[in-house]
Write a structure and sequence with these properties.
three-stranded antiparallel β-sheet; 12% strand; aspartyl protease; transmembrane; globular; 4 helices; transmembrane helix; alpha+beta; EC 3.4.23.36; Lipoprotein signal peptidase; 3 strands
Length: 160
C-alpha cells in the first residue's frame, strides 16, 4: 500500500508543480509575451501549443486526448503493477505519468498546452516542465531497458 501511495503522491506532486508553473505563465508571462531568463541562452516565452511536440497534429485534439489517455493508462499499469522493487524504472514511469497528465489536463481543459521555455542558443520548440518530465522519464526508461538487457546477457554468459 505504501508503494502505491508513494507513487500517487509523486505523480500528484509533478502534476501540481506543472499546473502551478503554467498558471504563473498564464498570469505573468502571457501579458508580456517573453522575458529573458539567461540572456541569449534561455527565455521564458508564452506559447499556446495546439498540437504535440513541434505543433505536430495541430487541430487533432480528440485524437491527442484519446492517444495520450491510452498511453498513460499503459504507463500507470507499468508503474503500479510492474515496477515494484525496480527504483529506476519506477522513477522513469512516475516522470512520464506526471508529465503526461500535466499536458493532458491542459489539452482537455483548454484545447492547447501552455509552453514557456525557449532555448535561444538552438532552434528548438518552446516546451514546459511536463515535457521535461516526459523526456527525462523516457530516457530513464530506455536506460532501464538497456541495463536489463546487459544484466540478462551477463547472466546468460555465466550459465554457459
Amino acid at each position: 500500500m505504501a508503494f502505491v501511495l508513494f507513487n500517487l503522491a509523486a505523480v500528484a506532486a509533478l502534476v501540481g508543480i506543472d499546473q502551478l508553473i503554467k498558471l504563473w505563465a498564464v498570469q505573468a508571462l502571457q501579458p508580456v509575451g517573453a522575458m529573458p531568463l539567461i540572456p541569449r541562452v534561455v527565455e521564458l516565452r508564452f506559447v499556446l501549443n495546439p498540437g504535440m511536440a513541434f505543433s505536430l497534429l495541430s487541430g487533432k485534439q480528440l485524437f491527442l486526448i484519446i492517444a495520450t489517455s491510452v498511453a498513460l493508462l499503459a504507463v500507470a499499469y507499468g508503474l503500479f503493477f510492474r515496477s515494484r522493487g525496480k527504483r529506476l524504472q519506477q522513477a522513469a514511469l512516475v516522470l512520464v505519468l506526471g508529465g503526461g497528465i500535466g499536458n493532458l489536463i491542459d489539452r482537455v481543459l483548454n484545447g492547447e498546452v501552455v509552453d514557456y521555455i525557449n532555448l535561444l542558443f538552438m532552434r528548438f520548440a518552446v516546451f514546459n516542465f511536463a515535457d521535461i518530465c516526459v523526456c527525462v522519464g523516457v530516457a530513464l526508461w530506455v536506460l532501464v531497458i538497456f541495463l536489463d538487457e546487459v544484466h540478462a546477457d551477463d547472466a546468460a554468459s555465466k550459465e554457459q
